[in-house]
Amino acid sequence: MEAIILQILNGLDKGSAYALIALGLTLIFGTLGVVNFAHGALFMIGAFCAVTLSRILTLSRTVVDETQTDFLGNPLEVQVPYVYDWFGQATGDAIIDWAVPLSILFAIPVMMLIGVIMERGLIKHFYNRPHADQILVTFGLAIVLQEIIKFYYGANPIPTPAPDAFRGSFDFGAMLGLDPNVVIYPYWRIIYFAFAAVIIGAVFAFLQFTTFGMVVRAGMADRETVQLLGINIDRRFTIMFGLAAAVAGLAGVMYTPINSPNYHMGMDFLVLSFVVVVVGGMGSLPGAVLAGFLLGILESFASMREVLEVLPGINQIIIYLVAIIILLTRPRGLMGRKGVMED
Questions:
Q1: Helix or strand holding residue 82 (H, E)
Q2: DSSP 104
Q3: Whole-structure pTM over 0.85, yes or no?
Q4: Which residues of 31-46 are buried (b: 16+ CB within 10 A; e: fewer)?
Q5: Percentages (nearest 5) of helix, strand, coil residues in the chain
Q6: Alpha carbon distance 1, 150 (integer Å)
Q7: How far apart (Å, rounded) are the C-alpha atoms in residues 23 and 287?
Q8: Is residue 261 a contact partner of residue 54, using CB atoms and an 8 Å limit?
Q9: Transmembrane region positions (predicted)?
Q10: What are the sequence ranges of the domains in the chain?
């Protein structure tokens, strides 16, 4: 029982990242019909938004501290962050400590701007081109963005810790009446799952209950009719591209304490996320979320020691095996719509 609970928690953690990235991919494909292989790079850029804000908050000036001396008795030079001057030391320390959550406010406008520039500057020219052309150009864009990050931030992972208040672990076993210290799970991973649930719920609520979202859904179903009603659906789809970029960026921001940001992390998630989208059904938002959590949990169970002793390496291929089985039995995926990617 303890092992099952732990693997479900691990699966929800992985599935949260898969679902968030796949949700953005599906938003772009459902609105614009573009297969965006640069979406993993947006996840990476979001993670480096957290790195950038953390570095900005720790910018400092050199001062001489008379209360500290070296072995010769000379006063030491120390680095004092500028936030100390603006907010005081106690508040400044708290701001630096909470750099990752604060990066959400920094990443939202940055990612939306990047998404709009990407769509208006490049991707709009490939709307009516074959999907193969879209894949090639967006994959090339992903490589360019990856190399830019590598140039400015280096090739090594950059540790970006969670706030001190969330660096411990929660005892699920004790809460469920099991033995204490048997089923424990890091607080930040629980927060990541809760954050993903909030973002997914907000996206669905936005599309379901707002006038803007209703028009977008109508445009996804019948673009020409919406345009005949005098609605500038292209402008709304551009905004949706920005929102999809923001979703991917926020997924990257909150993932930084779990996996230290590096320049290739976008590519690591990209292929898996496309598998999630295909399994869920191209263009299906509920399908992308369902498939993300399903495949995350399956991958987690496949990583158990007992499973690996019987089937070595199964954890590396389980997602692809499940994808093959589902697509052989349901060619459109779990919740795919008729006619999508079938022309």
A1: helix 82-87
A2: H
A3: yes
A4: bbbbbbbbbbbbbbbb
A5: 70, 5, 25
A6: 43
A7: 9
A8: no
A9: 16-35, 42-64, 98-123, 135-153, 190-216, 237-258, 270-298, 310-328
A10: 2-54+99-329
Nearest to 31 by CA among 324, 236, 326: 236
Q: Report d(CA 44, CA 269) in Å as an integer.
A: 9
Amino acid, single-letter form, for residue 82: Y
Question: Which CATH topology does 2-54+99-329 take?
Answer: ABC transporter involved in vitamin B12 uptake, BtuC (1.10.3470)
The amino acid present at 252, given as its one-letter code, is G
Q: Which two tokens stand for residue 246?
A: 């923001």
CA distance 310 to 20: 32
Query: pLDDT tens track of the chain, all 343 residues?
Result: 677 888 888 888 888 988 988 888 888 887 777 888 888 899 999 999 999 999 999 888 888 777 777 777 777 777 888 888 888 889 999 999 999 999 999 999 999 999 999 988 888 888 778 878 888 888 899 999 999 999 999 989 999 999 998 888 887 777 777 777 777 888 899 999 999 999 999 999 988 888 888 888 888 777 788 888 888 888 888 888 899 999 999 999 999 999 899 998 888 888 888 888 888 887 788 888 998 898 888 888 888 888 888 888 888 888 888 888 888 888 888 887 665 545 4
Q: Judge whether 54 and 99 are in contact, CB under 8 Å.
A: yes
